[in-house]
Amino acid sequence: MNLALWIAAGLLAAVALAGGITKTFVPKEKLAAAHGGGWTGDVGVGFVKGLGVLELLAAAGLVLPAALGVAPFLVPVTAVCWVLLMIGAMITHGRLGEAGLVVLNLVYLAAAAFVAWGRFGPESFVG
């Protein structure tokens, strides 16, 4: 189970890193033209960049605390935050009729919920 939790956290961290880099460094106009990026046309650039920074922090928070042995309790806390972020993403993509992206966000949500459950519960770093 520990290995499955590390894999799930690592995959989520990779997704968060990619999304964070994209939202933080790619111009909003280019994001708006990309598949799944239409929502960026309705929000300010600061909001998009802010989400990007949050995703970069999530990428770090899903892996680094446990890998470095510094405040590993932050891993499940970050996973819960990712669940909340994915709920927002599902609502946003749902309103735009992007069912495929809603399903993808649901998969990410389920993986984050698994990490949160596992790291708060049976495979906690505290013990």
UniProtKB/TrEMBL annotation:
* Major subcellular site: membrane
Membrane-spanning regions, if any? 56-87, 99-120
Q: Identify its membrane topology class.
A: Multi-pass membrane protein
Alphabetic keyword roster: Membrane, Transmembrane, Transmembrane helix
InterPro entries listed in its UniProt record = DoxX
Q: Which Pfam families match?
A: DoxX_2
Q: Where in the cell is it found?
A: Membrane
Q: What is the designated name of this protein? A: DoxX family protein
Q: Which organism is it from?
A: Streptomyces sp. 900129855
